[in-house]
Design goal:
CATH class of the largest domain: Alpha Beta
Oligomer: single chain
Strand content: 5-15%
Mean pLDDT: 90
Low-confidence stretches: none
Bound molecules: adenosine-5'-triphosphate, magnesium ion
Number of helices: 20
Helix content: 40-55%
CATH topology of the largest domain: Rossmann fold
Number of domains: 4
CATH architecture of the largest domain: 3-Layer(aba) Sandwich
Strand order of the largest sheet: 2-1-3-4-5
């Protein structure tokens, strides 16, 4: 329920407003002076304040100035007697939401309050969303304690409090965008916009209009003005993703923006100041692109001043267990599951795998495993398909030893029989399947009295 404070030195006026607004379903508190009202504002954190302009003591306009900054500022509606326009203008300049002239009309008052409440709901929603973003992209949401990742994060943490340009290098799925967002949402410009443009995905002829915008008539089909990303990201962060794929001519223009901090819309005459932090990301080695004549050397030098190099997962295997629990937690929550962890066999398989799609691939493997998992542990069976593991590997690593124990000889015999079956009774082949020498294998065949297809075999030398 929205909370409203009514401030008026006339008791009757307080009572009338209270009745009207309580009828509308609001929680209403009254104060007889701005000073008293301010105390209520501090303790109740109201959505809307309706205040008289002239009272004994502080005026309604002065009250606007004294509301502390550490609360979400309520929408203030000034009530004023007819003929005090200059004060109203001053109040509106100081951030009052609206004004009402006395004597108050019921309907007009109710509508003004309703609008103010709606505005506050939007504002609070906005703050909630922003906070969720800050939470989502906090630095410790970036997993990794390996040496290479720690080195990368050391650099990230150093540049975050500045507005310096950053170049992020990393193979696909190593977390380039995640790091770019974390930099933004922890930087001085964090309340500004974050936008990303994938230079590889946008056709060459469109990329400049996306970035710089255009004026009507700039080219055939440009019927209206378009604001580009540099302008709409003012006071925020623009991620130029896959910058290695930026057309050569556009590179020149980007260099100019970095140097002069201004842009010109296509077909426009004036330069427009922009204050945008640039983060560039690439999975191409830009120095190679420079040697190949595809990337401007001057832009490369300009960008590479601060380079963050995100290691591929295969070069930071020690982080694998961290990712396992991080993503299992995440998808437990998402799917309402209670998976506790991964089997030793599964972890070993994760360690051995080369992860061409890096963390993105890892995440989707765990996502699927958590979803599919029938027990409280992710087993090799849950991930085998994903990692293209041969079945035999799965069988052995995941094998459970039952409570009553096992008879090792029986097990050995079973395995040998199975290997023979799989090898079409060719002992040499079966031996290979079990990683045994032919001689050892043959000895066991004899011991267990297992028949071989003698037409295909010689006895061991
Ligand atoms: N260190 C990390 N900790 C937690 N999650 C991560 C980490 N690195 C990447 N991820 C997650 O992996 C997924 C892929 O990351 P991201 O999109 O940032 O990669 P990318 O390098 O931009 O990939 P691409 O080059 O394919 O665009 C995202 O869901 C991201 O949240
Ligand atoms: Mg990306």
């Amino acid at each position: 329920m929205a909370v409203i404070i009514v401030i008026d030195d006339e008791h009757l006026q307080q009572e009338i407003l209270k009745t009207i607004l309580e009828d509308e379903g609001y929680e209403v508190h009254a104060a007889s002076s701005a000073e008293e009202g301010l105390e209520l504002i501090k303790t109740l954190n109201p959505d809307v304040v309706l205040t008289d302009l002239k009272m004994g003591g502080m005026t309604g306009v002065q009250l606007l100035d004294t509301i502390p900054d550490d609360i979400i500022k309520p929408a203030v509606i000034i009530m004023t007697a007819f003929g005090t326009i200059p004060s109203v203008v001053e109040a509106m300049k100081k951030g009052a939401f609206d004004y009402l002239t006395k004597p108050l009309e019921k309907d007009v008052t109710v509508i003004a309050v309703k609008k103010a409440v709606e505005r506050m709901e939007l504002l609070k929603e906005n703050i909630r969303l922003k906070n969720a973003l800050f939470e989502k992209f906090k630095m410790d949401g970036i997993i990794g304690r390996s040496k290479k990742m720690s080195e990368a994060m050391d650099i990230v943490k150093k540049v975050t409090p500045t507005m310096v340009t950053v170049l992020i290098y990393g193979e696909s799925g190593t977390g380039k965008e995640l790091v770019a967002r974390a930099i933004h949402y922890n930087s001085p410009g964090k309340t500004g916009p974050f936008t990303a443009i994938n230079c590889a995905a946008i056709p060459e002829n469109l990329i400049e209009s996306e970035l710089f915008g255009y004026e009507p008539g700039a080219f055939t089909g440009a019927t209206h003005r378009k604001i580009g990303l540099f302008e709409s990201t003012d006071k925020g962060t623009l991620l130029l993703d896959e910058i290695g794929d930026l057309p050569f001519l556009t590179q020149t223009k980007i260099l100019r923006v970095l140097q002069d901090k201004e842009i010109r819309r296509l077909g426009g005459k004036d330069s427009i100041k922009v204050n945008v932090r640039i983060i560039a990301a690439t999975n191409k080695r830009l120095e190679k692109e420079v040697s190949a004549g595809k990337f401007r050397e001057d832009l490369y030098y300009r960008l590479k001043v601060v380079t963050v190099e995100l290691p591929p997962l295969r070069e930071r295997k020690e982080d694998v267990p961290l990712f396992v629990s991080f993503f299992i937690d995440k998808y437990n929550q998402e799917f309402g599951k209670r998976v506790k962890g991964a089997s030793e066999g599964a972890i070993k398989a994760f360690m051995d795998y080369h992860w061409p799609g890096n963390i993105r691939q890892f995440e989707s493997v765990i996502e699927r495993a958590v979803l599919m998992c029938d027990t409280d542990i992710v087993n090799l069976n849950d991930i085998r398909g994903e990692l293209h593991l041969p079945a035999s590997e799965t069988a052995i690593t995941d094998m459970q030893i039952p409570e009553k124990g096992i008879n090792f000889e029986e097990l050995e015999k079973e395995l040998i029989k199975k290997a023979m079956l799989k090898a079409n009774n060719v002992a040499a082949k079966a031996a290979r399947l079990l990683g045994m020498s032919y001689k050892t294998f043959w000895y066991r065949l004899e011991k267990f009295g297992i028949q071989t297809d003698s037409s295909k075999e010689d006895s061991p030398p």
